[in-house]
């Protein structure tokens, strides 16, 4: 077993005796404790950081909160966060019309160049930045949201009040690294793995409602679904 694995085992035992927010001993103290070089400790701590077991706080490191587990469903982010007892929130980054690109034209069933509403928000859980979400909506259909919608609240709830029902969605999730802009908005680094989600939602008549591109911090968010045998 490598020294890094030995340190990881020791850190797992150490963290088992700590609770959320407790400080993690400094690298130099852990190096002495486990009888290894600080570089070895640093590598083991980096693995725990990426897994979301620990997080930086100021100049130190503390035990992290459990990851926010989001259901893969047609429920909103707000509903998923509240079910875990977390306080959802959002910071508005962009909210304006753009011209439909060929990709948006095909996905939203609008003409190239037609106005499309672009809503970009940082997602919060207990005031911690965990995601960055860009939503695209046909302005001709949902332009009234500019007058009625509070961008710090649930978009899905606002859309439902217009009588539109979310019936189905296609969703793809993969892992990517953020751009410098995205990392800056999420207060992390370009080395932090992100869960990249792309979704296209349809109403009960099969008409496109939205296209979404979202990034979630891999150290703070996980997704969950239920599988059934449909054979």
Q: Count all strands and give the number.
A: 10
Helix and strand sequence: HHHEEEHEHEEHHHEHEEE
Q: Report the principal-axis shape.
A: elongated
Strand content: 35-45%
Write the layout of secondary structure elements.
Blueprint: H1 3-16, H2 27-34, H3 38-51, E1 54-57, E2 60-63, E3 68-71, H4 77-83, E4 88-99, H5 102-108, E5 115-125, E6 128-138, H6 139-142, H7 145-148, H8 155-161, E7 166-176, H9 180-185, E8 194-203, E9 208-217, E10 221-224
Parallel strand pairs: 3-10
Antiparallel strand pairs: 1-2, 4-5, 5-6, 6-9, 7-8, 8-9
Helix pairs in contact: 1-3, 2-3
Outline the structure in words:
The protein has 231 residues and is an alpha+beta fold. It contains nine helices and ten strands. It has helices at 3-16, 27-34, 38-51, 77-83, 102-108, 139-142, 145-148, 155-161, 180-185, and strands at residues 54-57, 60-63, 68-71, 88-99, 115-125, 128-138, 166-176, 194-203, 208-217, 221-224. Strands 4-5-6-9-8-7 form a six-stranded antiparallel beta sheet. It has a two-stranded antiparallel sheet with strand order 1-2. Strands 3-10 form a two-stranded parallel ribbon. Helix 1 crosses helix 3 (38-51) and helix 2 packs across helix 3 (38-51). The protein is elongated. It starts with a helix and ends in a 7-residue tail after the last strand. The model has no long low-confidence stretch (mean pLDDT 89).
């Amino acid at each position: 077993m490598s020294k890094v694995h030995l340190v990881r085992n020791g850190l797992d035992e150490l963290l088992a005796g700590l609770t959320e927010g407790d400080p993690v001993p400094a690298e130099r103290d852990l190096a002495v404790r486990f009888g290894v070089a600080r570089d070895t400790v640093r590598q083991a701590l980096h693995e725990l950081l990426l897994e979301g077991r620990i997080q930086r706080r100021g100049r130190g490191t503390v035990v992290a909160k459990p990851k926010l587990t989001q259901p893969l469903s047609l429920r909103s982010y707000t509903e998923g966060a509240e079910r875990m007892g977390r306080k959802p929130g959002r910071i508005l980054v962009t909210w304006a019309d753009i011209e439909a690109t060929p990709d948006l034209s095909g996905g939203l069933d609008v003409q190239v160049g037609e106005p499309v509403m672009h809503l970009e928000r940082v997602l919060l859980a207990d005031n911690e930045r965990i995601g960055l979400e860009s939503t695209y909506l046909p302005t001709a259909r949902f332009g009234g949201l500019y007058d009625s919608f509070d961008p710090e609240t649930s978009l899905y709830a606002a859309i439902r009040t217009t009588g539109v029902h979310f019936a189905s969605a296609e969703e793809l999730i993969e892992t990517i690294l953020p751009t410098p802009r995205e990392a800056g908005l999420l207060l992390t680094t370009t080395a932090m793995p992100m869960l990249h989600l792309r979704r296209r939602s349809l109403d009960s008549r099969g008409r496109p409602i939205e296209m979404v591109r979202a990034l979630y911090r891999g150290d703070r968010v996980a997704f969950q679904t239920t599988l059934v045998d449909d054979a």
